[in-house]
Design brief:
The complex is a heterotrimer of chains A (about 375), B (about 425) and C (about 475). Chain A has about 375 residues and is an alpha+beta fold. Chain A has helices at about 15-25, 75-85, 100-110, 115-120, 120-125, 155, 190-200, 225-240, 250-260, 280-290, 315-325, 345-355, and strands at about 10, 30, 45-50, 55-60, 65-70, 85-90, 125-130, 135-140, 165-175, 175, 180-185, 210-215, 220-225, 245-250, 270-275, 295-300, 305-310, 325-330, 340. Chain B is of the alpha/beta class and about 425 residues long. Chain B has four domains: about 5-105, Fumarate Reductase Iron-sulfur Protein, Chain B, domain 2 (Orthogonal Bundle), CATH 1.10.1060.10; about 110-155, no CATH class; about 170-290, Rossmann fold; about 300-415, Rossmann fold. In chain B, strand 8 (about 380-385), helix 22 (about 385-400) and strand 9 (about 405) form a beta-alpha-beta unit. In chain B, helix 4 (about 65-70) crosses helix 6 (about 90-105), helix 17 (about 285-295) crosses helix 19 (about 325-330) and helix 21 (about 360-375) packs across helix 22. The radius of gyration of chain B is 21 Å and the shape is globular. Chain C has helices at about 25-30, 50-65, 115-120, 140-145, 155, 190-195, 230-240, 255-265, 285-300, 310-325, 325-330, 350-360, 390-405, 425-430, 430-445; strands at about 20, 45, 65-70, 85-90, 95-100, 105-110, 125-130, 165-170, 175-180, 205-210, 215, 220-225, 250-255, 275-280, 305-310, 335-340, 365-370, 375-385. Chain C is globular and about 70 Å long. The chains are: A alpha+beta (about 375), B alpha/beta (about 425), C alpha+beta (about 475). Chains in contact: A-C, B-C. Chains B and C meet through helix 3 and helix 4 of B and helix 1, helix 8 and helix 11 of C.
């Protein structure tokens, strides 16, 4: 089955047009570049709202370390402009090279391996303008890094999957990009050894950019910072790791993490599910998944599991529910976006009622 | 804070009380420094709440009796003063307020009798000793008496120490470095005369000549903190006039007394003796403070290492700001491993006669303090106040771990004498 | 239908000593740290368990009695100000730390736990709880969650919302809900994110899962003195432009220095027009390299004096002055209004110059303390309420400063929240549709508007469908 069948696809060029479209249609399905293949298949009765025409950086002052951009702006374009000023979004927004839009990253709530150090997409978003289910343009947050006025709509929109509003404009804070990086790949004999070292790293004094586990036994550790102290830090880290360690630097180092961000390790046409987790649950999950032929990667110090499987990820639903975990389909065949056990239903329903009382943006993502 | 206190109505202390209220910005930083707030968790039993209630009473908006239960529960530990970023002189509000409130409120008969009893006996060793001689054998009957008297009985030592009057002058050993006058105290002379003896020996050993003025009596602390201003002044006056003014320091070894004497200027505000009282107050030093400033002659090392936990008496740490001096003195003893208990800034619940007037809160605080001290792994507890010593001993015993509790001067005294810290019974 | 004792059935839930109704008891709860507002509640209840809180909220919903949850009452925006005719639910007895899990790096706490207690409980594992409002010795996690509290160290690691992973709450209509979990990652809309900072308008958080982080290995704290506020602000711009990301970046002006010195004696240079406190934190080797860059920048910035803290106690001393600065200002003036505006960092200099001009215009002194790294200003407007007209002038000055912040593209509040104090200004930041969406969200949680009624939103006419609800 293809990603989506041709139907009504509307491509607004202004925010006003977005509002008109929302008011004029019964069921709206926003999409960006379609990079999260499992999430871009609207039901036949929905009108697709293609936001790729709503692109462009609205404001960027490098001295302020903030920017504002329209929802359909490709992330790679933003990152290019930031890099020219030595700045970055530290959380490695996934699928940027594939063309992901800023709005899509926020709507799916996805962060890459770099979220380990300073947080993910939800920790960097400052402001949002969205079109709600009544077709009104609503602003939340602002453009400054500290703001406690009003309810925190920007955070609410993270992970909202287009079901609470259409994200037309977003403001983010950025950080200075580290001037140098180094990565250590270290292999252990078994999973539990790797996990033990992972746990020790979590409470260690090292400031790591990324900390990933490639099951069953390989840790990938990335540090970044001033070039004059990088070597000393690297040596200290190697002494701490005390396993079969390999240092990667330069262009090869960058491409390692590029590949992770782009999910290059996921076999072609396989499905991918994001599973928030904690380090102590990893062995449990590993045990349950090993029989399924799934390929896994644990990122951000064990805060998230990325599970790739050959067939429909619905098979994971039962396992996740049993383990008390939840999952989000990201790549692969479409289906109910949220799998497993998700506890926010009661509260989430009320939020939906307030922002989209007529259900213009489709059902809640955790309901079938 | 804004207020409409008619300052003149309260005499010269009115100004001081108003100033304290003004300085308070209601920020609440004092809440967790207050032992009663930590136990009771209610705003009325916090310094911020009490300041507000006292303000309301002084303004005429609230009756004295309505605010009284909460102001009564204040320990007077002044932990709030240490925590306050705005510099509120809480003691300049609560002490005069208590005096004002005693004049206008109606206490229930039982309370009045208890207070009268305490103030008629505790300040007078000649009355206290015979009473205790009668009272001690009654300890087994503690179950039959009302809770307040039971608390009193529980605090008494197993036996009454022999009376040992101090000489009028104790000469300095070796070269004389200073000359001081010592406040012998009231309850302390009866319950623990060895503290005074240890004090004069340690001072003498350090080249200090000690004068123990005859005619001194209770410094007035108990009465002052109970709001009996008139009685406090009567006692204080006698003590005041019995002290010579040609000494290098007026020394106290009971934290409650030292802090009370330092407040003599406030006590006598609006009275003829104010200047003389203020002059005396300026000379008051806790013995640990004085020795630290003078330069302690280090005692010989202990025969074996001993772990000692130091307890800050609130009237020494908060009211007088004396924290480092006793620690330095103890740390100068080789072999003494000085330990710091958690919640060091929270009162043990003794606070004058608090443990007699508010036994439940005092018990809770005493229990917490004992737990914190035991958690350090100490073998001995050292502190600078008789009231704390009694309270802590009682609660260590009640949790089943009766560690020796010594006065800082007793620790030094034994070190000088080459005596062990831990073999004597409590 | 009104009964003679409006809280008669509430007394069934609480023993006598945990439901306060006597005048002295109610008086103590009339205000929080924002003393300009006072209101007497009908009663104050002191629940000891989550169940009691839930039962109380359900009672309020049945009886249509407004309620205000209160921790330590340190809010600077009137967040815990009682609603007249309503009750106060004092949460400070729900002060248990339920669980510290060093492997998962989380702490699960009740709302009455003081902020600093979390770090104390985490300390044995080399972990701590990062958000550090200046009142952290006293303020509670529940309050922090309601107002998304900040502090000096949120430049690098964010505010409360960035450290809350999960919440269990009772909504105003009595339903108990859960959101989030133990992982810093999530799926679906960030429901925890919308609850944090909702200023008590949705309900009451009963159990909060907090993120703990490892203590930085090294801190290097520098205090630099400047001959003018502009110079200090310029130094901040240069530090940030150099690509450094300090843990904290604070400025205090002459008046604030004076107050802090009188309070704490931190050793600030009394003749400086402004001091800058910069703190680097992280891995030792990295911090040392950053320090070299920082000192270079500071030396080139015209500082008249530069001091580096040599150990932890010197570091604490530098911070003690800053953290007590607001309350210390009470020594300089009988009254003050503390504000909390934000301007884009690059416009700080402009904002300060304008505040100076306004101070002269209104004839009132303004002390300035602020988080220079994120443009979060705390002007402290000093006045004497007994002098006729001074309070009004102070309020007008305060209003003008808020307008200024909005005009420069900032915010009316960086971390204290809107509460009671700034509700009239919310329409300066948000338009009609924005406020409408917020109101709809609020009503979805609290149809009767009994949770912290009257706060955050500008006052509007009484909705007819709420007639019959007690005021």
């Amino acid at each position: 089955m293809s990603a989506y069948t041709v139907r009504d696809v509307l491509r607004p060029k202004t925010i006003g047009e977005v509002q008109e479209i929302v008011r004029a249609h019964r069921y709206i399905f926003p999409r960006g570049a379609g990079t999260k293949t499992a999430l871009v298949s609207p039901p036949p009765e929905a009108t697709v709202l293609d936001l790729s025409g709503l692109a462009g950086i609205v404001e960027y002052d490098p001295a302020e370390f903030t920017f504002t951009a329209l929802g359909g702006t490709p992330v790679r374009e933003i990152e290019r402009v930031l890099a020219a000023h030595g700045q970055e979004l530290p959380f490695d927004p996934p699928l940027a090279a594939a063309g992901a839009t800023l709005g899509g990253v926020v709507a799916c709530g996805l962060s890459g391996p770099g979220r380990y150090r300073y947080g993910g997409v939800r920790d960097f978003i400052l402001g949002v303008r969205f079109v709600d289910g009544l077709g009104d343009l609503v602003r939340g947050g602002g453009r400054v890094v500290k703001n406690a006025a009003g309810f925190d709509f920007p955070k609410l929109m993270v992970g909202s999957l287009g079901r609470l509003g259409v994200l037309v404009e977003l403001a983010f804070k950025v950080f200075p990009a580290p001037k140098s990086h180094a990565t250590v790949r270290v292999a252990f004999a078994r999973l539990d050894e790797a996990l033990e070292v992972l746990l020790r790293l979590l409470t260690s004094p090292f400031d790591l950019c990324s900390l990933d586990l490639e099951p069953p036994n390989v840790l990938w550790v990335r540090i970044g910072g001033l070039p004059e102290s990088l070597d000393a830090r690297l040596h200290r880290l190697l002494a701490f790791l005390d396993g079969h360690a390999e240092v990667v630097q330069g262009a090869e180092e960058r491409s390692v993490w590029e590949r992770v961000r782009e999910f290059g390790w996921v076999p072609a046409a396989w499905a991918l599910v994001k599973v928030p987790i904690t380090p102590r649950r990893i062995s449990e999950l590993e045990e349950r998944l090993s029989g399924l032929g799934a390929v896994r990667r644990y990122s951000a110090g064990g805060a998230v599991a990325w599970v790739a499987c050959p067939g429909d990820p619905q098979a994971l639903d039962g396992i996740l529910t049993e383990l008390g975990l939840s999952g989000l389909r990201v790549l692969g065949p479409p289906g109910p976006p949220i799998l497993g056990a998700w506890i926010g239903g009661a509260f989430g329903r009320r939020v939906k009622q307030a922002l989209d009382p007529d259900g213009r943006f489709g059902p809640l993502p955790w309901e079938p | 804070m804004q207020h409409t206190i008619p300052v003149q109505r309260y005499g010269p202390v009115g100004e001081k009380m108003a100033r304290a209220v003004e300085a308070c910005v209601h920020c609440g930083f004092c809440l967790l420094a207050c032992p009663t707030y930590r136990v009771l968790g209610e705003e009325m039993d916090s310094p911020r709440g009490r300041i507000f209630l006292m303000k309301e009473v002084l303004e005429g908006r609230l009756g004295v009796d309505e605010a009284a239960p909460f102001v009564d529960r204040c320990l007077g530990c002044l932990g709030c003063v240490t925590a306050c970023p705005s510099g509120v002189r809480y003691e300049e509000l609560v002490t005069p307020f208590r005096e004002f409130s005693e004049r206008t409120r109606r206490r229930p008969a039982g309370e009045r009798i208890l207070r009268w009893m305490l103030l008629a006996t505790l300040p007078y060793p000649a009355r206290l000793r015979p009473l205790l001689r009668i009272g001690l054998p009654l300890r087994p009957l503690r179950g039959l008496v009302p809770p307040r008297l039971r608390a009193l009985l529980d605090l008494l030592p197993p036996h009454l120490p022999r009376a040992r009057t101090l000489p009028e002058v104790i000469p300095a050993e070796g070269k004389r470095r200073a000359r001081v006058a010592l406040l012998a105290g009231c309850v302390q002379q009866v319950l623990a005369p060895e503290i005074n003896w240890a004090t004069v020996r340690v001072l003498s050993r350090n080249g200090v000549e000690v004068v123990v003025p005859r005619g001194q009596i209770c410094c007035g602390a108990l009465a002052m903190h109970a709001g009996e201003g008139g009685k406090a002044r009567d006692l204080a006056r006698r003590t005041l006039f019995s002290f010579p003014d040609d000494v290098d320091g007026v020394i106290t070894n009971a934290a409650g007394c030292g802090s009370a004497m330092r407040e003599y200027g406030l006590l006598f505000t609006g009275h003829a003796e104010r200047d003389r009282a203020t002059a005396l107050a300026r000379k008051v030093r806790d013995v640990s403070e004085f020795l630290d400033a003078l330069g302690l002659i280090p005692p010989p090392p202990l025969a074996r290492p001993v772990r000692v936990a130091y307890h800050d008496a609130c009237h020494l740490a908060h009211a007088q700001g004396v924290r480092e001096a006793p620690r330095r003195l103890l740390a100068s003893i080789e072999g003494l491993d000085l330990l710091e208990p958690g919640e060091a800034d929270i009162c043990c619940g003794s606070a004058g006669t608090y443990n007699l007037e508010h036994p439940e809160i005092a018990s809770e605080l005493g229990r917490r303090k004992a737990t914190q001290l035991l958690a350090t792994g100490a073998e001995v507890v050292a502190t600078g106040n008789i009231g704390c010593m009694v309270q802590i001993r009682t609660h260590l015993t009640s949790v089943g771990r009766p560690l020796p509790v010594l006065h800082t001067m007793e620790v030094l005294d034994r070190a000088y004498a080459g005596e062990p810290l831990t073999d004597r019974s409590v | 239908m009104r009964t003679a004792d409006p809280i008669a059935s509430l007394r069934a839930i609480y023993p006598r000593e945990r439901i306060l109704t006597r005048p002295a008891e109610l008086a103590a709860y009339e205000s929080d740290a924002l003393t300009a507002f006072r209101a007497r509640p009908l009663a104050v209840v002191l629940p000891q368990t989550q169940e009691e809180v839930i039962e109380t909220v359900r009672w309020c919903a049945r009886e249509r009695v407004p309620f205000v949850a209160r921790g330590s009452g340190t809010s600077l925006s009137g967040g815990s100000l009682p609603v007249p005719g309503g009750i106060v639910i004092a949460l400070n007895r729900l002060n248990r730390i339920l669980r510290v899990d060093p492997e998962a790096r989380i702490a699960v706490v009740e709302p009455g736990v003081p902020n600093l207690e979390v770090s104390r409980a985490a300390a044995p594992y080399g972990l701590y709880y990062a958000p550090d409002p200046s009142s952290q010795g006293v303020c509670t996690i529940g309050g922090n969650v309601a107002f998304n509290s900040g502090g000096a160290h949120c430049l690098k690691y964010g505010m409360t919302a960035n450290h809350v992973l999960g919440i269990k709450a009772v909504l105003a209509d009595g339903e108990v809900v859960q959101m989030g979990g133990e992982s810093p990652e999530g799926v679906g809309p960030d429901l925890v994110g919308i609850f944090v900072g909702s200023e008590g308008l949705f309900g009451i958080a009963l159990e909060i899962t907090l993120r703990l982080v490892p203590r930085p290995e090294a801190y290097r704290t520098v205090m630099a003195a400047y001959p003018s506020l502009e110079a200090a602000g310029e130094a901040v711009a240069r530090i940030v432009a150099a690509g450094l990301l300090p843990g904290a970046l604070e400025i205090m002006d002459r008046l604030a220095i004076e107050a802090a010195e009188a309070a704490v004696g931190a050793g600030y240079p009394r003749d400086a027009a402004a001091i800058l406190i910069v703190e680097l934190e992280g891995e030792a080797a990295e911090v040392e390299s950053e320090l070299a860059h920082l000192l270079e920048v500071i030396r080139a910035s015209g500082a008249t004096e530069v001091r580096l803290a040599r150990d932890e106690s010197e570091r604490q001393r530098i911070w003690k002055g800053r953290k007590g600065a607001f309350s210390a200002v009470g020594r300089l003036s009988p009254d003050y209004i503390v504000q909390d505006g934000v301007v884009p960092r690059t416009r700080l200099g402009e904002a300060l110059a304008e505040i100076e001009r306004l101070s002269r215009k209104y004839g009132l002194r303004v002390a300035n303390v602020f988080h220079a790294g994120d443009g979060n200003l705390h002007p402290l407007i000093l006045y004497d309420g007994r002098t006729p007209g001074e309070l009004e002038r102070a309020e007008h000055l305060a209003g003008e400063i808020l307008h200024l912040c909005v005009r420069l593209g900032g915010s009316i509040t960086g971390e204290h929240g809107v509460g009671m104090e700034k509700r009239a200004y919310l329409p300066e930041m948000f338009g009609k549709t924005d406020l409408e969406a917020m109101r709809r969200l609020r009503r979805a949680m609290d149809p009767l508007e009994i949770a912290n009624r009257g706060k955050m939103f500008p006052p509007e006419e009484v909705r007819p469908e709420l007639a019959g609800v007690r005021p």
